[in-house]
Design a protein that fits this description.
172 residues, alpha/beta, RNaseH-like_sf, nucleic acid binding, Exonuclease
Amino acid sequence: MSFVMVDVESDGPIPGDYSMVCFGAVIVEPTLSKTFYGQLKPISEQWVPEALAVSGFSRDDVLGFEEPAMVMQAFADWITENSKGRPFFISDNNGFDWQFINWYFHHFLGNNPFGYTSSNLGSLYKGLVKDTFTNFKHLRKTAHTHHPVDDARGNAEALLLMKEQGLKISLK
């Protein structure tokens, strides 16, 4: 099983009504060298300026991005080429990131290579240290820049450190 750390930036709170602007993914393994980055053209006329601003792009910028179906197919192909065994989705905020990736895969490709499950990195850390009032973010080495590959990489670094701290996880 390959853990795929994912981070999403969007222009609003939910898929369908709003659009995924870009996302990044990293296969969680010691080198963290297998990465994916996609920028997607909006699927909706609706957008929240404050949400879009987090990504660093303007509305004019995103209107020039790639068609979502092409990006999602490229991501599915990347997952197939780079994961060993079943790919497993993990993110810092899987309630947010998962909803966009899952919706886009099903809407544009008819299925999701990750299946129907995901994991939340923060919850794993809380369980590892047995403290629901703590977070893992101090374990990141890569700065959290809101570029989704940077953010996914930092989260993958944290997961690798959690493994060193005793989290039982198979990272192949």
